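Worked example

This section walks through a single chain of length 449. The input is the sequence exactly as stored; nothing has been trimmed or padded.
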Amino acid sequence: MVKWEKIESNKVSLEIEIPSEKVNEAMEKAYYKLRGQFVIPGFRKGKAPRKIIESRYGSEVFNGEALDILAEPAYREAIKETELEPINQPELEPVQLEKDKPLILKVNVEVKPDVQLGEYRGVTIERVKKEITAASVDKYLESLREQHARLVTLEEGTLQEKDLAIIDFKGTIDGEPFNGSEAENYSLQLGSRTFIEGFEEQLVGAVKGEKRDLTVSFPSDYYHEELAGKEAVFHVEIKEIKRPQLPVLDDSFVQEITDDFNNIEDFRADAEKKLNEGLQKQLRVDLENRLIEQVAENCTVDIPASLVEREIDSLLREFEYYLRMQRLSLAQYARMFEGGMAQLREERREEAAKRAKVNLVLDAIVKAEGIEAAEADLNQRISELTERFKMNESLDEAREKFSHDGRLDMIKREIHYRKTMDLLVENANIVEITEEQAAAGEGSAGILE
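Given that input, the structure is written out below as tokens.
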């Protein structure tokens, strides 16, 4: 039997009653599991009767293990019966736990708050009409030429942007060297912004064999605090200059970089097609993001602080992934700034609150529209994932693995959200505007007047 009541805006208290028969069964299971831990004079270890152990250690000696046996299944069944949606771990407190009596279990838990849905069908949203131009294709092909450029050593000429300079350097502050200030035969591409501001710029125009003294200042927020805000002089010698030589954009170049095409005309047509596909996907994502934000603004909900904190954790994990590519940990990055980790969390609070609200609104629309993840949807998505991650399991094996790892519910939720976004877009009043209108601020208001 389950009773429940709301005690705060999104917190409920449940009273779960478990029959005495189940309590006695759990007590007996607890006894058999734990009896080997008790040493009773006159009995071999693990062979003392339950009554003897209880008389020596107290009648409640098996209560903790019995509660572990009973509480989790009873809580899950109560949540299913009440159709509540918890958002964090419950607080469990046994009110009554005795032999031959029902277990009375009190549970406090945060649940999803009620969402007052506003308008979500027929929302007016602007979409900027964009297409891949010939100039865009040219820029892409030029980037391919740069990727496949060959470095040619210059015996004459001066250093220019994008040149690779082989240098020796030694840095000093107030005439004294400092850690990491010296290197030989270092490869530096001008324009890469690898060094602090001003270093690379002062090398432009240098010739092979030239020596230059470069004066630069470390930023005030430089991650090595002992260098922050200080002026340094770097003594640099240009050992070698290498310049990228771009390949000719012709059939030979195409055949060198791909086996799929033999001539530049077909390769260019394919590039234009793929660029356009990528652009349309980007435009769709942008439209969906702006649409769900607008829908969320039309809705009212009290966002639980725990959900906001969870989203902050997620944002920081995403940021840490980026930091790892810079060979920094999140903890190291936090130490560079006043306020540390607390400041990093606070800076993301507003975005986290938006994310939390959007997710709550999406869940509410899923429920209102009766959106489900059908078996065919699940199987298709699982097949896509097994192919993407090159899993060797069959569909059934992959599904079992996802279920065991707790990812099947995540996949179902992903399908729910995908169907919901499709519904919102299909029912939106989409107003097409040109890039010129968007740049001039002539949105749908101006068009519809």
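What to look for: The domain at 2-110 is CATH 3.30.70.1050 (Alpha-Beta Plaits).
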